[in-house]
């Protein structure tokens, strides 16, 4: 691996010398990105949390280059051990990898990725798709690198209300995105994620962070947020949802994004048409709802740590902190939510008490 190590060091130093550096505020600490300006501009991250200087020691560095790799490096991925590593899992990009120092991997029809300790180099990346591949690799970096910090993947919408996080869990189609975005506008609150994030413990606190995804939002939710058909036509739907990059979502949906929050509230969504429409969760209910949001072992697209970033240690089960309050809400996407429940959340999490604008819930009348 001498050739790979030498090329990695030389290419990495050239990227540092010629690229632009930015630092992503994240739940696992600042992550340094070194890339051409057009690649940095496309990173799906809360715009006000991409900084010119880090606020703390850097946890990981990711550099991007268009330089081709030396022939011996590419040839190593054609070896038998690398071919046996080939991944074609459901939801995953096809790739193969070769463990070592540096650790080498390549996406089929995509870039070469090398890791040496906490430094990662993405090479042979087409200029026309720098930001797309950078976001893809960054997701793997946060998901698997986060395990070293005790974090795991979660399937939930998360908003931040006055510095206190509210995690919204429920099966696909339950209305997590719809509810999170409407609460963000009405309370008001800031959005951490509307679908997937990473979650773990920081001492005795439950902490969650975003991933570099854009926002996939149903047409009806976007219309409720004031987006017209002319705007939606710029984002063709896929599987019934419109994909908006992070910066566009901030601009068009009039929401604010933050990269992390401390979880103090948890909402478990259940089908509508039940009476009463909401109730508080006891300690056992909180634990079950939190367990349902933990998808670290079940999400098919992110099971293989092909960059060797994570540890082999099993993560302890998620536990709500003693200050966490939970609710079950019977909710229909696009429908109203009980104003009494909204008041209870606002008072519990320290937000300003919202007004009663918007359609009343039938049980409020």
Number of domains: 2
How would you characterize the largest beta sheet?
9 strands, mixed
- The beta-strand count equals 20
Measured as a percent range, the helix fraction is: 25-40%
Low-pLDDT stretches are 356-365
What does the radius of gyration come to? Answer: 22 Å
What class would the helix/strand composition place it in? alpha+beta
The separation of the N and C termini measures 71 Å
Count of helical regions: 11
Q: Overall 3D geometry?
A: globular
CATH topology of the largest domain: Rossmann fold
> What amount of the residues lies in strands?
25-35%
Q: Which whole number gives the mean pLDDT?
A: 85
The appropriate CATH architecture of the largest domain is 3-Layer(aba) Sandwich
- CATH C-level category of the largest domain: Alpha Beta
Topology:
Layout: H1 2-18, E1 20-24, E2 31-35, H2 37-40, E3 50-51, E4 60-64, H3 71-76, H4 80-84, E5 95-98, E6 103-107, E7 112-116, E8 119-123, H5 130-145, E9 151-155, E10 157-161, E11 164-169, H6 176-186, E12 190-193, E13 196-202, E14 205-209, E15 215-218, H7 219-224, H8 229-232, E16 237-238, E17 241-244, H9 246-253, E18 260-270, E19 278-280, H10 283-293, E20 325-330, H11 339-349
Please tell me about this protein's structure.
The chain has 365 residues and is of the alpha+beta class. It has 2 domains: 2-149, no CATH class; 152-364, 3-Layer(aba) Sandwich (Rossmann fold). Helix content is 27%, strand content 27%. The protein contains 11 helices and 20 strands. The protein has helices at 2-18, 37-40, 71-76, 80-84, 130-145, 176-186, 219-224, 229-232, 246-253, 283-293, 339-349; strands at residues 20-24, 31-35, 50-51, 60-64, 95-98, 103-107, 112-116, 119-123, 151-155, 157-161, 164-169, 190-193, 196-202, 205-209, 215-218, 237-238, 241-244, 260-270, 278-280, 325-330. The strands form 3 sheets. Strands 9, 10, 11, 12, 13, 14, 18, 19 and 20 form a 9-stranded mixed beta sheet that branches. An 8-stranded mixed beta sheet has the order 3-1-2-4-8-7-6-5, with helices on both faces. 45% of the residues are buried.
